[in-house]
Amino acid sequence: MSEFDLIQRHFTRATPGALLGVGDDAALLQVSSGKVLAVSSDMLVCGTHFFADTDPFLLGHKTLAVNLSDLAAMGATPRWATLAIAMPAADEAWLAKFSAGFFALADAHGVELVGGDTTRGPLNLCVTIFGEVAAKQALRRSGAQPGDEIWVSGHLGDAALALAHLQGRVALSASDFAACATALYQPQPRVALGLALCGIASSAIDISDGLLGDLGHILDASHVGARVNFDELPVSASLRRFLDQPLGKQSALSGGDDYELCFTVPARRRGDVLNISERLALQLTCIGNIVAGQGCIVRDVAGNPITLESAGYDHFR
After folding, report:
1. Residues forming beta bridges with residue 153, ordered by sequence position
2. What is the C-alpha separation between 186 and 157, in angstroms, rounded?
3. Does residue 88 belong to any structural domain of this protein?
4. What total of structural domains would you count in the chain?
5. CATH classification at residue 210
6. How far is 262 from 219, CA to CA, in rounded Å?
């Protein structure tokens, strides 16, 4: 089967939201009046971001989810995506499951696939996603101010704990691994939360490389510091069993692959955040405050600082 047959069979669908979708040299997209494009690209590489035997349906979901998470952090509405795939061979069964997982999430968020590329090579997946947001409403990393509260969505650290189990660094019970594996394989991009935070949050970022590393990007962009209360971190019952161990602390603070949102809010807007939490039926937790200065200090319940070997994942360290 040729490259073009693969594209036609597995990745060509109607794109009523685009002027021109798959099948030409480029897509033609029309941005809504008063909106600007929010564009993000993410690459998933076999052996680095996922194991070769990962369920292709779940991998299709995650390939798009990590990009949707970036748009969520900007408060943007998802519209279109392109997908580039390198793979060792044309595996029809694998592609059918992968595309099913990809389009299931795409349909849930109104995303149209409007182009991409396929080639032979080591398994590598790259999505570029396009969203729309009013220019002055976009969430950014650079707006945090001293006195703002720091909030996160969902639970932290489950994906990192599941990965540690798969790598043999910790032994989880079957039930604990099943609970944590969902976070690793099927992260839920917080698109609705990002949209709700526009006009309320002073800054935002998605947590892909670990809380401390990604919060650090907000601090650098905003030229501020932070104080985080370790005992306020929202963690699952599975991870809580390991919090007295270095691996548990590392998972919660810098494990990565959470794809939750970390955002800052002026203290006077706390009620708005609580209303959003109730409306979306989504746990939102205040974990600390923005302060003048630089850097982030994490303290335990006794007020003692907690130090880690790494603040977050870095591909080149």
Report:
1. 284
2. 14
3. yes
4. 2
5. 3.90.650.10
6. 12
